[in-house]
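User: Here's a chain of 126 residues. Predict its fold as tokens.
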Amino acid sequence: MKLEELKVYSLSMEMSDRIWEIVLKWDYFQKDTLGKQLVRAADSISANLSEGFGRYHYKENTNFCYYSRGSLYETKTWLTKAHNRNLIPDESYELFNSEIDNIGIKLNNYIKSIGKTSQKQHTDNQ
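Assistant: Prediction complete.
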């Protein structure tokens, strides 16, 4: 399997690109304070997934998925702050929240699946 075939990875990449496009339109102060934090958190979701995917041992992959999940919820916090400060309209905010929930479910399912193949192969070889 390739990294790009992971749905949770592609969804997080798409969401972070859309966040980037929104933040680009903000004024300097808004970008420098809230915007940088929001973009970094959103970018970290897919970045941690890719770093974990490239690791040899499944426990390392799982660990990076936990970092990714932390970044997902950090993104939710920054989006809430942006919405509360009238930087993101209601419709976009609701869409992002829905996407975060969907990514969270897919990420949890991916975490549960990591290592099952390796553990089964190890058991079968004994």
